[in-house]
Amino acid sequence: MVREFSAGGVVLRRIKDAWWMAAIELPENPPEGAPDPIRRAVKRSKPVLTLPKGLIDPGEKSPETALREVCEETGVTADLITKLGDVRYFYVRSWADGARVFKIVSFYLMRYHSGRIDDIAPEMRIEVGRAKWIRVEEAPKLLAYKGEKEMAGRALEYVAAHPDL
User: Which residues, in sequence order, are bridge partners of residue 22?
Assistant: First the structure.
């Protein structure tokens, strides 16, 4: 069995007395060459909203990956606050070898630093249809995947316990 390790972020931003979170919408019609999980996910009838995340590169630490992926997929930079937790799941590659993959994604809570949401490089459009801010209270209902909903819930709990964030 193949193992994959990824990292991502829950980026929070305070706008007019409310907390907002950066999320990405997968492309509606992913081009040839888009990663298989994206190609499978977009076959749904409604937009697929997820958290920014990606594979940990060789020599890279998990928090570094999370910060890099957030910037690449959303267009914003952020400051790391704390680790929220890990999401574990299995999937089967439908490309190349058809291997069963055990994946662990480490998620980190971050605070917005700078940049414009959805200001991303054209080559990222293979993975990201658009990036946008959503209210953190709505995130557990809007995100597509169970583990990511849980991470958004943990971020909401953190904000409630640390109002001076």
Answer: 133
**Residue 17 CB coordination number (10 Å):** 5
Domain boundaries, the chain: 2-161
The type of residue at 49 is L
Q: What is the CATH number of domain 2-161?
A: 3.90.79.10
HEC assignment per residue over 107-159: EEEEEEEEECCCCCCHHHHHCCCEEEEEECCCHHHHCCCHHHHHHHHHHHHHH
Q: What is the pTM of this model?
A: 0.88
Place of tokens 């490089």: 121
Task: Please spell the DSSP secondary structure of 42-96, one letter per residue.
Answer: TTSSS--EE--EEEPPTT--HHHHHHHHHHHHHSEEEEEEEEEEEEEEEEE--ST
User: Token pair 């920014």 is at which residue?
Assistant: 52
Q: Which parts of the chain have pLDDT scores under 50?
A: 38-39, 41-42
- Distance between CA 53 and CA 73 in Å, rounded? 8
Q: Which residue has the tokens 């007395």?
A: 17
Give CA separation, 72 vs 9, 19, 126, in Å: 12, 22, 12
